[in-house]
Design brief:
Shape: rod-shaped
Structural class: alpha+beta
Bound molecules: protoporphyrin IX containing FE
Largest sheet: 4 strands, mixed
Distance between the termini: 43 Å
Radius of gyration: 30 Å
Length: 239
């Protein structure tokens, strides 16, 4: 039922203060009542203390009565929740979506980052396990894990700026610079290793100087994702 009621912003509500023939509306919690018919409100002020056109949720605690006094009066609308100053840049429609599905607010980036982190940590581990055991399927798995990383890293790179805009209003910081630069290094590294392995599938199988370079490159991936994750977590959990 409440969804069909008119929504009042605080500015709109303020115009219903009983002046110039306007009705007297007051808000309690998120409900707006028309109290124009009350003798005790018709001047627009109540007990010379409380003004019509305002939200009085906090003030009722000091009244000699409770909220039962509203029963006689029609609810004419609902009060729009006040915008947090941190949310100024977010359109109302998106804030309404977040109220319904709160996890969309904070989680898109933290949720998606764990995939590239896990894959990029696993890639060199599988390569080393292959070198230790000689089991070729481990090296093949490593390649598949790398491809998976190539697919999921861009997802983290897109949700990152989204969360940055959403929760930090896109405010520039050293951490953000590190994250953008680090992400670009990460995809470049993944792409180089991927193309190398694609063009020379035997690269890790035969002893050579190039194989050592390939292995060293693969070992940089866990370092880069750790740096990205470390600085990311510094933003999410500053203390
Ligand atoms: C310290 C502050 C307040 C005092 C001294 C006060 C006093 C009163 C008194 C004596 C009445 C009539 C008796 C009754 O119905 O119990 C009344 C009614 C009422 N009060 Fe208050 N009140 C105060 C604050 C508030 C606030 C903050 C609100 C709104 C959130 C409010 C809303 C009403 C309403 C809607 C009525 C019913 C009016 C009617 O039946 O015509 N009052 N108040
Ligand atoms: C593959 C690349 C990336 C990885 C692996 C990564 C990793 C992470 C991790 C682990 C967190 C902490 C999340 C948590 O523990 O809750 C985080 C947070 C964050 N990252 Fe990234 N990140 C990446 C790219 C980016 C990019 C490109 C940006 C934006 C320019 C970015 C901006 C942020 C922001 C703003 C947070 C804080 C999220 C919040 O508190 O709402 N990240 N990142």
């Amino acid at each position: 039922m409440q969804d069909e009621l008119k929504e009042f912003s605080r500015e709109e509500l303020a115009t219903f203060n009983g002046e110039n023939g306007q009705p007297v509306y007051i808000a309690h919690d998120d409900k707006v009542y028309d109290v124009s018919e009350s003798k005790l409100w018709k001047t627009g002020s109540h007990m010379q203390r409380h003004q019509g056109g305002t939200s009085l949720t906090e003030d009722i605690g000091g009244a000699p009565h409770g909220i039962e006094v509203f029963e006689k009066f029609p609810q004419v609308g609902i009060l729009k929740p006040e915008k947090d100053p941190m949310d100024e840049h977010i359109p109302d429609l998106l804030l309404a979506v977040f109220r319904k599905i709160p996890m969309l607010r904070r989680h898109p980036h933290p949720m998606t980052v764990h995939f590239p982190i896990a894959f990029m940590m696993l890639f060199p581990v599988l390569n080393i396990l292959y070198l230790v055991t000689g089991n070729k399927s481990l090296e093949t798995s490593a390649f598949h894990v790398l491809v998976a990383g190539l697919v999921v890293a861009p997802v983290a790179m897109l949700t990152g700026p989204y969360n940055w805009w959403l929760n930090y209003a896109g405010k520039w910081s050293k951490i953000i610079a590190i994250k953008i630069f680090g992400s670009l290094i990460l995809v470049t590294l993944i792409l180089v290793i991927f193309l190398w392995r694609l063009l020379s599938p035997e690269i890790l199988l035969q002893p050579s100087g190039a194989r050592i370079v390939y292995l060293l490159l693969s070992l940089t991936l866990p370092v880069v994702v750790s740096v990205l994750g470390w600085f990311g977590a510094k933003m999410t959990f500053p203390h």
